[in-house]
Amino acid sequence: MKNLIFLSITIMALAACSTKKATNETKAIDSSTSIITLTDTQYKNAALVLGRISQQPMAMILRVNGKIDVPPQNIVSISVPLGGYLKTTKLLPGLHISKGEVIAVMEDQQYIQLQQDYLTAKAKISYLENEYQRQKALNGSKASSDKVYQLAESDYKTQKVLVNALAEKLQLVGIDILKINENTISRSINIYSPINGYVSKVNVNIGKYVSPTDVLFELINPTDIHLALKVYEKDVDKLFIGQKLIAYTNNQPEKKHACEVLLIGKDLSAERNTDVHCHFEDYDKLLIPGTYMNAEIKVTNANVYALPEDAIVRFENKQYTFAQVDDKRFQMFEIQTVKANEGMVEVKNGELLTNKNIVLKGAYTLLMGLKNKSDD
C-alpha cells in the first residue's frame, strides 16, 4: 500500500514538472522561428524603410587621459650664482610676477669684496695703460729696452683681463657696472624676474643662507602650457600632428577645452604607451600644471560594414537585424556590433548581410510581431 502511494505521488510530481516546462517553453521565442510574414495592412502600417548594408569609414571616439604639463623651456629655476643670505622677498606660490620685477634681495660680504676688487682694478688700469703707451713710444725710439716694453704691455693686458672678468661677475649677480663707483658700494643685490608668469615654488625663507646650487624659487611661464596625454601603442597610429580634440577635468566635465596635437612621442614606456603633447587653443588660466584631464579624440578607421542604429534591435542580450526574404516576409539575423558613432553602428559580421535588403527603419515593429507570434 505504501509503495502504491509513493508511486502515485511521484507520477503526479513528474506530471506537474512536465506541465510547467511545457508552459515555459511556449512563452520563450524559438530561435529557429526567425521569419515573420506581414499582411498587406501590417506592411502598410509598419512603414518599413529598406536598404543595403554599406561599407564606410567609421569614425570613433578615442578616450585617453593625462595631465597639464609645462615644457622645460617654460620653467625657470632662480638661484644666486655666488650664494648669499636672503634679505627680503614677497613671493608666495601662485603669485603673478612681471619680467624685470624685483623678486628678492640678497646680501653677503662677498658682494662688497667683488665691487671693491672691480673698482680697484679699474682704477689701476688707467696707470698701466699710460705706462704701456709711454714704453711703446720709448721703445720705438730705442730709448728703452724691449724687455721693459714687453713687461709694461703684459701688465696692461693682464689688468684688462682682470677688469673684464670682474665686470662679468658683477653682471652675473645683477650689479650694473655702469652705476657703481666708490660711493655706491652695496652689500646687497637684487634678484629680478626673467619672465612674465607666476610662482610655483618657494624653497627658502628670509635669513637663510643659500649656495650657488640651491634653487630659491621656481617660476612658470604659462604662455605655452600644454596637455600631455598617455596613448597606448595600439592607438598611436590613429593620431597625427594638428589633430583636433577636446579635454575636460573630472571636476568640470561639462566645460570643454579645445586642443590640438602638437607632438607625438617616438618611444614607448614599460606600460606600452607614449606621451602625446597637445596645445590649448584658448588657455584657461584656472588650469594649473599637474591637473589631471580626460580627452576625447575623434579618429577614423578603415572602411567597415555599418548599419543605422534604427536597423538594430536588442533581444535577450543579443543584437539582431531583419532582412527581406521576399515581398512581405522578413528574417531576423543575429549580428555582432563593435561601436557606434553619429547614428551608425559597425557590424563585425556584416559580410553575411551583403546583397540583402535590410530593414533600416521599423525593425522593432517586426521584433514585436515576432514575439507576439511566438507567444500565441
Structure report:
The chain has 376 residues and is α+β, with helices and mostly antiparallel strands. The chain folds into 4 domains: 31-59 and 303-375, conserved putative lor/sdh protein from methanococcus maripaludis s2 fold; 63-72 and 222-301, Efflux pump adaptor protein, beta barrel domain (Elongation Factor Tu (Ef-tu), domain 3), CATH 2.40.30.170; 74-108 and 187-221, Beta Barrel (OB fold (Dihydrolipoamide Acetyltransferase, E2P)); 111-186, Helix Hairpins, CATH 1.10.287. The chain is built from 6 helices and 22 strands. 19% of the residues are buried.
Q: What attributes does this structure have?
A:
single chain, 376 residues, alpha+beta, conserved putative lor/sdh protein from methanococcus maripaludis s2 fold, Elongation Factor Tu (Ef-tu), domain 3, OB fold (Dihydrolipoamide Acetyltransferase, E2P), 4 domains, six-stranded antiparallel barrel, four-stranded antiparallel β-sheet, 6 helices, 29% helix, 36% strand, rod-shaped, disordered N terminus, MFP_Cation_Efflux
Short description:
The chain is α+β, with helices and mostly antiparallel strands and 376 residues long. The protein is 29% helix and 36% strand. It is built from 6 helices and 22 strands.
